[in-house]
Amino acid sequence: MKIPSARLMIPACFLLALPGATLSAEISVDATSIVRFEQRADTGVSKKDIIPATQFFGLDAAKLADGNLSLHLYGWGRGDLADKSYNNDQFDGSLTYGYLQYRFKAANADVRAGRFFVHEGIVNEQIDGASFRTDLPLGFGFSAFGGANVHTQNLYNENSDGKGDGNFGGRLNYRYRGVLELGVSGQYETNAPTLNNYPTVNHRTVGGDVWFSPHRSVELMGHTSYNTVTKGVAENSYLMNVKPLQHLVLTGEYNQHRERNYFYTWASFYKTLDLNNSNNRSSSIGGSASYEFTKAFEVVADYKHYTRETGNADRYGADIKMSFLDNSVRSGLGYHYLRAGKEFAIGDSPSASYHALRAYVMHDTKTYFAAVDVLDYIFKDKVYNERSAWEAMASLGYHLTPALAVSGDFSYGRNPQFTEEIKGLVRLTYNMTFDSKGGKK
Amino acid sequence: MKFFQQIFPALALAGLIMIVAACAQMQAIPGLPVSHPETLAAGQQVSCAECHEDQQKGTLKAFDAFSHSPAFVKNHRFYASSDERLCSSCHKSSFCNDCHTNQVEMKPSIKYGNRPDREMPHRGNYMTMHKIEGKLDPASCYRCHGRANNERCMSCHHN
Q1: Which residues of A touch B25 (CB under 8 A)?
Q2: How many CB atoms lie under 10 A from the CB of residue B118?
Q3: CA-to-CA distance for A32 and A404, rounded, in angstroms?
Q4: A440·B35 Cβ contact <8 A
Q5: Cα(A219)–Cα(A333) distance, rounded to whole angstroms?
Q6: What is the pTM of this model?
Q7: Considering only CB atoms, which chain A residues are within 8 Å of B65?
């Protein structure tokens, strides 16, 4: 079992500092226990029986202290009851987040302390530390964060994940009415450790983001990021939504990545992606149209063109969503085709083209719930002598109480990876909110 | 970079002055409610405009922009990066972290096998399909697995 590092002490200390007076608190608990049963028959390897038991647990306590303080916790733990499920640890676990938040009554201002995720502009980080954000007069807004990086799995044959220990940054934004938002954001990670088998790469980026809606039926949004270490633009990602009719949404998107600048800190893929080469670029351009005929019937059609140095590809298709019996029966159908050449193929296959088909239906009542989901990837050319990779899953459950449910899933599939895959699980779910309001999902 | 270092003290001072001046007016700036006052139906594409039509106030974006159309769900990253506080009035952080996390225990589509109506990544036998999709659009992998949630990647991809 992994021993929690000293970094966990930071959120733990904040938890210990919780005020004792929590009598008026609104508390919400989510607990899901899942025991999986899998039999894997990997090509050329003996069968493995896998029985991991996992406990997910979440706790949210609001209205603590003066009513503006809240506590948020989420994590999981797992024990393998038979063969190891995928790594060398028989037991494993993770504190996904654990933080205290103080919300001020005005200006959407808040302070967070503990372990949490930061999503601000081009910044996406997880830290053990503190953050602050607020709206400011004249349409401005400001956020800042700082703390210790939450480290991940060590790189192969290294004693580090390649990340620096500290990370801080923030975002400054300006809004003009409900029409325009401009943002500038960035993060600075302290020096990365020296590695034996990988280059030492620092993670430092800045960027700008925009949201522009000159009319309520038109939205343009996106961001551009810049890698201050490699001194080059890393990503351009933009989306336009147009709603010419009330229930019709048309979208157009463009994404471009200069691979050395964007993937620079992806140590595991440094050689695979040839990140010393500053000329490699990848891009995609596409669009979609969705129309909601009724609340119970919706159709989406989409197209995307991909371009990389090695070649290009196209994907197109459509999805249909339907619901019946006052939304208690929900179903969907989907078809997509990827046209892609040998340069994207698996093994010696002459192409990477495939058809993707999906169909599902589910029924959810106050007493029982059931679902069937079938997904099939049919390859244009066989992959490891298999024509397709498919999986069918059935799920059946029962609400023991409004908050407590027990359910079981069973799935069977065949694919080029495992030839045959049989999976099952038993799930116990407890979702309870001890308050009288709308609450959160 | 050198230029930035030279002007940084001046920028920091200007920012500080601005913040102090702004604080005096902060109480007048309205805030979003902690949570949505009504329970929203599970499994239904939420249409904010149904109740909030033409309710754009101050610097708030029009509510209809956040209606959970298929386009919104697919491209929610653009909204979350600037309006996380609005998202959090209906969604707990764990709703996001089922997919976006540092260390995932199982695919979200397995954890929520009883909810095939929810959009979840890597359904079915993605172990096979990632060998195509990863070459086609590595940026789509990097967003979630580049600097976090990469334990499974590293069991095979060493460099």
Answers
A1: 137
A2: 15
A3: 10
A4: yes
A5: 28
A6: 0.88
A7: 213, 216, 219
